[in-house]
Each structure stands twice: as C-alpha cells, then as structure tokens.
Amino acid sequence: MTTFNISRIHTSAGIFRLSGTLTLLENNAMLNYHAAEFMSTDGWCQLDLTRSQTQQILERIKPAIIEHLAVTPCAE
After folding, report:
1. CA atoms of 7 and 37, how far apart (whole Å)
2. Which of 1, 37, 41, 63 has its CA 20 to 30 A from that of 25?
3. How many Å apart are CA 64 and CA 58, to the nearest integer?
4. What pTM, to 2 d.p., does this model score?
C-alpha cells in the first residue's frame, strides 16, 4: 500500500486535489481516497466520498490518476 497526495491533477473531468492510498494486487490497482476536492470557479470544493456521483467521477478519472502515480514519486 502506498500513500499519495496529489496537489493538482488535470483530467478530462476537471482539476482535482486528491489524497489516499494505492494498493496494487496482481494487475489491479485499487484506490482508496481519504479526501477529494474539485477546482470550481470559486476555488477548491470538497467532494462527498459517500455519494455515488462522486464515486462515478473518481472511477472515470482512475486511469489518469494511476498514470500520474506511476510517473510521479508520491510515497510517504
């Protein structure tokens, strides 16, 4: 398990600030988020991780997050 903090990532769904853990199991990457924020016109907006809409967005941008973590040293 690797802890990550992404201060800013540009994705097809917008700009996010994310923290959590990455677990690699065989050929599957599992992301567990501690916090997720979206850059709105008024600044950072905290996302409710319990909402299905938030989970759908995070699942949609998962490939971009995994790619970012693969090339960026983020382990703590």
Report:
1. 10
2. 37
3. 10
4. 0.86
- Give the whole-angstrom CA distance, residue 31 versus residue 65: 9
**Which of 43, 35, 39 lies closest to 15 in space, CA to CA?**
39
pLDDT in tens, 54-63: 999 999 999 9
- SS3 sequence of the chain: CEEEEEEEEEECCEEEEEEEEEEEECCEEEEEEEEEEEEECCEEEECCCCCHHHHHHHHHCHHHHHHHHHHCCCCC
Could you read off the pLDDT of 24-63 as tens digits, one per residue?
888 888 999 999 999 999 999 999 999 999 999 999 999 9
